Amino acid sequence: MSQAKPQKVKWVKPPKLGLLEQMYFPTVISGMATTLKHMVGTLTGTGDKNIQVQSYPEERPTLPPHYRGVHRLNRDPEGRVKCVACYMCSTACPAHCIDIVAAPSPWPDREKYPETFVIDELRCIYCGMCEQACPVDAIELTTIFDLTGMSREEMMFDKEKLLSVFDKTVAAGTDPVRTQPGRLGVASLPAGAGLTGSSSAQS
Amino acid sequence: MDWNALIPLLVTLITIAVILGGVLGGVAYLTLLERKVSAWVQDRYGPNRVGFDFGQSWLWFLRKAWGLGQPLADGVKFLLKEDVIPGHVDKVFYLLAPMIAMGTALFAMGVVSIGDTPAPPALVMSKPIAGQEKSGINVLTFPTSIEDVKRLERSGELKGYVDQNEAYQKRWKFSINPGADIGFLFIFAVGSLAVYGIVLGGWSSNNKYSLLGSLRSSAQMISYEIPMGLSIVGVLILVGSLNLERIVDWQARNGWLAFYQPTALLLFLTAIFAECNRLPFDLPECEQELVGGYHTEYSAMKFAMFFLGEYTHMITTSFLTVALFLGGWHLPGLEAFLGADSYIALAAKLGLFMAKVGGVVMLFMMIRWTILRFKFNQLMNLAWKGMMPLGVLSLLGSMVVGQFGLSPWLLLPWSLAILLLVTALGAFLPAEDTKVHFKVTRGRAPSASGVVVRRPAGAEAV
Fold this sequence. Notes:
The structure holds two protein chains of two kinds. By secondary structure, chain A is an alpha+beta fold. Helix content of chain A is 28%, strand content 13%. Among the domains of chain A are: 18-48; 71-178, Alpha-Beta Plaits (2-Layer Sandwich). Chain A is built from seven helices and six strands, in the order βααβαββαββααα. In chain A, strand 3 and strand 4 (112-120) form a beta hairpin. Chain B folds into three domains: 18-73, no CATH class; 81-117 and 175-428, no CATH class; 123-170, no CATH class. Chain B has helices at residues 6-41, 70-80, 91-107, 146-154, 161-170, 183-204, 208-239, 244-254, 257-260, 262-275, 287-290, 300-325, 334-338, 343-368, 376-404, 411-428, and strands spanning 123-124, 139-140, 436-440, 452-454. At the A-B interface, strand 1 and helix 2 of A face helix 1, helix 16 and strand 3 of B. Strand 1 of chain A pairs antiparallel with strand 3 (436-440) of chain B.
């Protein structure tokens, strides 16, 4: 290991102790007073404002909206799944946990839609890269963090389950739809159409 | 067969069962108390989830129960965990070590009384014992047999012993082995064996961190036994007996020894902190440096036995502190108020003893969150340069008072004066090396020779 450069070395002088501090016991007693103060404060409730603990199942934490919890599939204003089955999320996914089967769309505003859309919640690392990759803002991560299940199969979230997460979180108001509603993005346009107009591609 | 002879045996067995059960139950709940106190001091609530409902909805009123089910859950966990014995250990000593650690800690409870146990009557002769005329000793320490004693009473050399003994036999005794004259000598003899548990555990684990922890521990325990011994020799001189019941009895008549010898109490407390490996002296198992210390390689119940041994040690030494310095079951005015021998008085004394022990245990736990861990050189300095001279000075006072028959109250100013003197003297002693500064760089200290280096002449200190 190389020696640090002299100008980078910071020299720290220990603080000078007074007589009482060098006698040790007075400082121990004052330290005990601090310990006792905190203990009595917690026990009698006078120190409750100091308590940094949440009694978890009864008190739920308020998480920031950008928290990366369980996924959801967003619905468009008509209540249909927003996803256009472009595979960008599953391509971006570092854990390879998204499995999509695309099918021709039954609706006129897009070419494809996901026939099945399965996320393995156990395999997911909750990095949020699917959210970033999605061109139509169809997949989002919610603030639901306490995901439990009794079996591995249960933790494979299919399209209906992911849509129900959307319904639940929007109804609960914990996770408002963060992206703009309305028209789908460029990925929904027929092949080639999105690439011709540079202005639409940028918007 | 004389069935009446079996009754004392039965009584002893029941006492052993009760005290052992009480101590082990107490240890289990001490672990909970430890976590609770830690939490309170750190502005948390502590474990408050596990109750006694066992998942049954009709036991809803036992849900949570302030977390009192936690020790039960811990116990079940320790019993059911996989018990790993690593392949590289010395199996015999590896298995022996936790047994020693816990056994020695439990042994000490053999002579400690937990409530009002009367002192056995002394065999005071009316004149010096034959062969002891010069020294004037008139207390017979080894009665040969009750027939001999009765013969001595008839000849008038001994008065009232038989009656006193009869009354003594009828009293309640809250002790496994009441009237043990070996008293706290036994506790120290057995307590010192506890170091074997740690040394063997560290050595047989065949792991450098365990070994380092146990080496530290042996040095620490041996060093702190000296100031501990010095602090209680003063008690021995004042009371004149090793018997813990006599010591408590003396304190009930003359006042608590803590008021005569506060310095000795302080030394004793410090020494038992070190003996129990409690913070600020928990170097044998300091997590930051030694992973887990001597019990790194232990798992499941064997680890729990080390853990239980440590807490049992804490309980035993707390009992000892109360018996030696804090007056045992005694509280001024209690006997006048409740009578000496009523059941209420016995219960009150038992409760009082327990309350005092609880107070010492709380002190243990609060010191843990107040004082930082010592470095090893500081630990040794404190024992050899600080506590040893203080202990010798304290003992000197007791010796003068004992030899010349002075009032023991003279010990109080002496005790406080030497404490003040020795601690203040430390401030005027030359500091180790004031030119040494701590070199702080980004990341780890690059100097191969260690962190502490001398500041070069031109460098600026901040």
